[in-house]
Structures are given as structure tokens and as C-alpha cells.
From TrEMBL:
One of its GO terms (biological process) is DNA-templated transcription initiation. Keywords: Sigma factor, Transcription, Transcription regulation. One of its GO terms (molecular function) is DNA binding. The lineage of its organism: Bacteria, Pseudomonadati, Pseudomonadota, Alphaproteobacteria, Rhodobacterales. The keyword Transferase does not apply. Belongs to the sigma-70 factor family. ECF subfamily. This is Sigma-70 family RNA polymerase sigma factor.
Length: 182
């Protein structure tokens, strides 16, 4: 019995002589750990505490079933806690899906099409007023999704120059679009 953990010895004392002090040590050790386990499992604080009480009550009543040759105290108690958590999940009613509202058509209506065409025209006009090197950098970065380093490699220009062209191009584009927007 000397090769058993202190927790297993306490559980054997509960099993063999209903030792309340040993049970108190088990409770003090396992209650916060089981509560944390239940909270991580998705239970609310009050429900987790109820499960802790239920598990520790089961430990008291079922201590006679504990066999230190099959499991240590921690494994045996956590097994009870795990089973209680599974029982709670099974008792919980399944959530019923809400009525799904009928989706509107995903096809754009005429107003949306016209608005998108106008925005595209405004963007094209604003891009036309930018310096060609800024347009080239913006197109590569935003339309072709090329990373800044890739643009630098393609053009042979330093990365800082590419970033400056993109930043300046965006600032100018923002300014141009403000003038066009209604």
C-alpha cells in the first residue's frame, strides 16, 4: 500500500472506514479541478458546481467499488466526472432549428447593376488620372494580387519604391474618388 499515491490512500480510507477527513482532502483536491473540467466542457458555472457535488457524492457512495489495482484515485474520480458530463449532455434536449426565412434572390436587381457600373466607371476615371507607374503598382497589388516583394522582383525596383508608389497611388485615388462621388 506504500506504493499508492496519497489520493489513492485517502480513497481507500473512505472505502474501508468512511474516513471523513480523507474525504475532505479528496474533495478539496478534486472539486476545483472537476469544476474547471466541466466549465471547459461548456457547462455554466452553477451547473458545473452541481456536477461537482454530484460527482463527489458518488465518490462517497461508490468508494466501495474503488480498486487501486485497476486505477488510481484520480483516474477513477475523473472517470465518474466524465460519465456525469456525458449523462448531462444526453439529458439536454436537442435544439430545434428556427424557421428559415425564405432567401431573397441572389441575383442583383437593376439598381444594383447600375450602381456597380457607375462605381466601376468612377474608378476607371480616377485610375486614368494617376501616374502610370502608380497604376501599374496598384493593378499588380490589388487586381492581380501580387505581393509587394513580387512587384519589386518583376519591375526590378526597390521594395521601398513599390510601397511608396502604392501608398501615394492610394492616397491620390482616394482624393480623386472623393471629387467624383455624389
Amino acid at each position: 500500500m506504500s506504493d499508492l499515491s496519497e489520493l489513492s490512500r485517502d480513497l481507500i480510507a473512505v472505502r474501508d472506514s468512511r474516513d471523513r477527513a480523507a474525504f475532505g482532502r479528496l474533495f478539496d483536491h478534486f472539486a476545483p479541478r472537476i469544476k474547471a473540467m466541466m466549465l471547459r466542457g461548456g457547462l455554466r458555472d452553477g451547473t458545473a458546481e452541481d456536477v461537482v457535488q454530484d460527482v463527489m457524492l458518488a465518490v462517497w457512495h461508490k468508494a466501495g467499488q474503488f480498486d487501486p489495482h485497476r486505477a488510481d484515485a484520480a483516474g477513477w474520480i475523473y472517470g465518474i466526472a466524465r460519465n456525469r458530463r456525458i449523462d448531462m449532455a444526453r439529458r439536454r434536449p436537442l435544439a430545434q432549428p428556427d424557421e428559415m426565412p425564405e432567401l431573397e434572390s441572389l441575383e442583383p436587381d437593376a439598381d444594383q447593376i447600375i450602381a456597380l457600373q457607375q462605381e466601376a466607371r468612377h474608378l476607371a476615371e480616377a485610375l486614368a488620372r494617376l501616374a502610370p507607374e502608380q497604376v501599374e503598382a496598384l493593378r499588380a497589388a490589388y487586381f492581380d494580387d501580387v505581393p509587394h516583394s513580387g512587384i519589386s522582383e518583376m519591375t526590378g525596383l526597390p521594395l521601398g519604391t513599390i510601397k511608396s508608389r502604392i501608398r501615394l497611388g492610394l492616397e491620390r485615388l482616394r482624393h480623386e474618388l472623393k471629387k467624383i462621388a455624389p
